[in-house]
């Protein structure tokens, strides 16, 4: 009985701290989502890079999952975010590998926005040519 009371007190004391920690979006992620939301445009990233920004973006359709060869991917079941997407930026992190452009690379016109562990490679008005998902 004493152990149960002790455990209850410990949980009651630590719950506000745990709740505050879980409900705070980190500054790097906030930087990306604020930029994406303000841009009004669509971008892309590799699955492990774009999953958090996509989850927190005001309009998740603004971030499309692609592979390094620019094949569109399905993020979650029955999502069609890449259909007719006009991708004008990439979101990368330290684990991202370089994207491969089939034709002229927009690298010469690219602005890089640093968001801590993320980088946004903005090549607007150039549009990246997305390919259909590989099966």
UniProtKB/TrEMBL annotation:
Protein name: Uncharacterized protein
């Amino acid at each position: 009985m004493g152990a149960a009371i002790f455990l209850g007190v410990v949980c009651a004391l630590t719950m506000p701290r745990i709740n505050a920690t879980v409900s705070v979006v980190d500054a790097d992620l906030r930087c990306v989502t604020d930029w994406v939301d303000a841009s009004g445009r669509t971008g892309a990233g590799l699955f492990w890079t774009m999953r958090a920004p996509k989850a927190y973006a005001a309009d998740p359709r603004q971030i499309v999952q692609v592979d390094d060869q620019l094949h569109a991917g399905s993020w979650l079941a029955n999502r069609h975010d890449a259909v007719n997407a006009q991708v004008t930026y990439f979101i990368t992190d330290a684990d991202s590998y370089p994207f491969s452009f089939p034709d002229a690379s927009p690298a010469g016109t690219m602005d890089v926005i640093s968001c801590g562990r993320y980088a946004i490679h903005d090549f607007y008005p150039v549009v990246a040519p997305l390919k259909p998902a590989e099966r």
